[in-house]
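> Could you send the Choline/ethanolamine transporter FLVCR1 prediction when you get a chance?

Sure thing. Input:
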Amino acid sequence: MARPDDEEEAAVASGHPPSNGYLPVPGDAPAGEMSAETQNEPKTGCLALNGVSRDSPKAVSRALDRPKTPLAPEEETQAWLLPKGPSEENPGAENTLVPRTALSPRRFVILLVFSLYSLVNAFQWIQYSIISNVFEGFYNVPSLHIDWLSMMYMLAYVPLIFPATWLLDTRGLRLTALLGAGLNALGAWIKCGSVQQHLFWVTMMGQCLCSVAQVFILGLPSHIASVWFGPKEVSTACATAALGNQLGTAVGFLLPPVLVPNTQNNTELLACNISTMFYGTAAVATFLFILTVIAFKEKPQYPPSQAQAVLQDNPPEDYSYVKSIRNLFRSIPFVLLLITYGIMTGAFYSVSTLLNQMILTYYEGEEVNAGRIGLTLVLAGMVGSILCGLWLDYTKTYKHTTLTVYILSFVGMVVFTFTLNLGHIIILFVTGGLLGFFMTGYLPLGFEFAVEITYPESEGTSSGLLNAAAQIFGILFTLAQGKLISNYGPEIGNIFLCVWMFIGIILTALIKSDLRRHNINKGVANGDMKAVPVDSPTDQESKTILMSKQSESAI
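Output:
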């Protein structure tokens, strides 16, 4: 545990207080010697973060200007310190300053609220396509128009992802979350005014707003996990945050067929049922927006991990969004992951959008069971997501886990394809669950793998680009598979997806696994960092390298 403030002050000379949020770890030297060396000698005992010595004039100036706020009572402090004094495991690690880290209980509230309003947004994405034949009859439009209500989510994401990730990186988490929850509620209320047969354009307008809200939602799971959760729980937190979206898809498969049964011979009853679904969604979305206003904070008082401490130590003016984008596209492993994630997630979007059409081709009048099969697919995927997140937190085997899940998703897609027309719909519950367990379980894996191999670039930027690739592939796959289903049947459309998923397996195998964030956390936690003196007392900023070879190569 961290020492009390009075002990910290006694350990350091009054003329050179420690930086706010950093704890001194004294060696065997007396306090007086420590103070003299700190002020007059090369900085051999100071942990340098992000390539800048903590005792350089620039770093000290920034640190002294910060308000020194004591740890809040509700914060759960978990200060990780390097070993005191030199040892066999940590030679020369004397007088080291390391960041104070803490876990805030508020992180669970933020995770819950985000997951819930992400759920409502995903519900609004799928609520049309799972009963596409009902809405076709009510609005008297072709099936392609109903498909576009789903594809609108994918289309809006691609051009808006860059301003959305810029907003997240420069204006922060709270504003981005408020925009996502607020636009989601506004779009839901606009849909309430579209429950007349000639007002299809109004429901399209409401869906457009919900699709814009999605841009401010999909990239947040990895960002929330990294900013609020510790290194031993970050993958599980990311998977849990992504669960909200998956659960919303599951609810979207289940509720619309129940709330809006196929009563096209009674238009008034059909309009009443649609209205009930729309108003209920709007009320829940508004309540969650209010909770977002109350609960969301920008970040905890203290970083939850050493990797976040490194990032938060950088002044905001040093960040360049354009440079971050350029660095990501220069990373071959990230580009490969971008393509493979787009293929897998795009295939999932296509299957979800066209599931009703596939089922009804062989099982006429089974709208409710089509929704239940979709529910089974997503619920199994939620279990897969949580298990994959727990496995990553325990093993950190990102590439092996990602590749294994990709291969099993391909196998599940092949099995689902060739059991569609067997005439026994119960089989589709089993094969759909198998497909969903791996295909939906893959989604948070891609987020976390991207954060690891692109650290210290922004989590929001890498996640946003992954989602943009998913939307592009989703649009292309939905249009192509929909055309193939109409002309040749569901089997040919699914084989088309299988071919692309096999390509994704090959590209995933080529990704080089360089776990940069994990190496930083592991290096500090194990005390595997040492001080290297500068060449001269005046050259303090650029030549003090205080990281292990493993951590240095990671950055």
